[in-house]
Every structure is written in C-alpha cells, then in structure tokens.
Amino acid sequence: MTTLxxxxxxxxxxxxxxxxxxxxxxxxxxxxxxxxxxxxPVSGDFGGHIQNLYRAVFWWTIAILALVWTLLAYVLMRFxxxxxxxxxxxxxxxxxxxxxWTLGAAVIVVAISxxxxxxxxxxxxxxxxxxxxxxxxxxxxxWEYRYPGEGVVTANxxxxxxxxxxHLVLSSADVIHSFWVPRIGGKRDVxxxxxxxxxQDSPRNYLTFTIxxxxxxxxQCAEFCGESHALMRLRVFAESRExxxxxxxxMQELAQPDSDSLADRGREVFMRSVCIACHAIAGTNAAGVxxxxxxxxxxxxxxxxxxxxxxxxxxxLWIADPGAVKPGAKMPGTNHPGGGMxxxxxxxxxxxxxxxxxxxxx
Length: 362
Ligand code: CUA
Description:
This protein is of the alpha+beta class. Helices cover 40% and strands 16% of the residues. The protein binds dinuclear copper ion (CUA). Dinuclear copper ion (CUA) binds next to loops.
C-alpha cells in the first residue's frame, strides 16, 4: 500500500494507468467460463464443505478489515495535526485492550478451526459399504486409476457415477503429487507409500465425497512434482448411473480393433516393439505397468494427461516425440531416450500404424 502510494505521488499518470489496468484484469477474470473455479462448486458434499469454509473465512476477514479500517480512519481524523492544536495525550500500554485483542483473535481462530477440522475428517472418512472405491496413483506426470471392484484400469480421465459415494485411495509411484478438481472440492496430497513393518499397510490419504451433478470437471496436480508439474492434468467425467455402468462394461470387454488394415499392422508393430514394456492393453499381451494403461485409449478425450486432444494425428505426434509435447516426459521418442529407455527408432509409417491402432481402441 505504502509503495503504491509513494509511486502514485512520484508518477501519478503512469501509476493510475497501471492501477486501472490491474482493476480491468481482475474485472475480466470474472467473466466467462470457470472450468477450474473453486468458488463455483458442483453440487455434492465435498465442494459444499469447502465453499462453506471459504464463505465463513471470507466474512470473518471482511469484518476484521472493516473494524481495523474504521478505527484507523477515526484515529487519522481525530488526531490529525492542526495549527495550534496541543499534543494529544500519550498512552503506553493498555492491559484491557491488549487482553481484548489477544482473546478476540484467539476466539476467531478457534471459530475458524472447528469447522475446518470437521471438514477434513468428513472428507477423509471411511466409506459406506455402497461406495465406489478407486485407487488414484500419481506418476510423473500423469494419473493412473484402478477400480478394484470392477477390474478396470485407466489413466487421466476418471469416470465416476453421480449420486453414489466415491472413495478415492491416494498414493504415488514416485514423488508427492496433489489431486485437485477445483469444482468438486479441495486438494489432497498424493504421497509415495512408506515401507512399513511386516503386516502393516503404508498410511494413505483418502477422499470421500458424492457428486450430484453430471458433467466434465477439469483437474490439475497441485503439488510441485518436477518439470511438467503444470502439465499434469486430469478430467473427471461424472455420469449417470446407467452411463457409468455402460462405460465399465465397455472397459471390461476385450478390446477389438477395427479390421482396418493400418490398425491391424499397428497392433502387430505395437506388440513386437518396446511399447509393451511400459503399457498395458486389456485382452492383449501388452501388460506393462510403468506407463498409462492404454485400454480403449481412443475413447479418452485427451492424451498425455491433458496435452493433446485424442486423434490419430496427435497420437502419432506424441509417439514420435513425447518430450516435445510434455517436457521431461519419461516415454522415449523416435530419436530421444526417455525414462531410462533407449530411443525407439520407430519409422514414421510404423508410428502412423501404431497411432491408427490406438485410435481404433474405443
Ligand atoms: Cu504431480 Cu505436480
């Protein structure tokens, strides 16, 4: 505030212009869609808990701001130096005031922390027996999802039914990530498992919530986890019960590629290349676990954890040089090693065939 005031006094025109520009940025930021807005939660319990906390803290802050500024304005007016006015009475220490504002602040902190702690426990709760359990595993820099009850594995795009309790079990394959879908609710750390004495499970974080509104909700890793942290995106597809059951049954069917000859050739190249060292496709010999599961990858809307829309062309781009799309990606490209693997050396026709095969997996 002081710096702003000083700069306005020195260069009034330029400062006023800069200040107006800031106001305009803030104003325009309020327009348009908010795919990732935490203050526009979808109906459901988790987003509601966070929204209530946010509102409570907001109004506490506004009340404190109003009180402090009113007192400040009063003091500035009341004790302004005027010609000939006597020096005001000098006071040093006031026990009642000091006890007052210490206790007052403590009461506010308690008033904020009680609902905060309640919300933490609610969202970390043990699920009901009807809950859908999904293991969420963070990787540099993508998301793996395992549905143990359904026997389904997928990546980056999380399908969830609305109206049913969801229980996410969070862990990481490498460093600390954080799972965050702003419109659904607050973020939670995704931690690497810690080795435990025999017979004990490593502690994990959970998220337990219900979504009431079907839709597609964007998410993002929210804990700095290395070079492509900002590119570790995800999408939640909240679907009706029927749509979710349909999706699960499609995932459970063995993938049948089209009888398109390019896709057939791509399948053959895929199965004899290094691809299968890291990737799995249900119903084939590809069973690698280091990279994203590619079962029905053609039906996912995006590839590379939110980097490109899924298409045969983009799949080919990604396979040729993942690092050019996502810096630091651990998948090797034609001429670039990656993740401890040598360059693939795949020819362009082979890449296009593999892309056609993956695109056909829908
Ligand atoms: Cu994963 Cu940041």
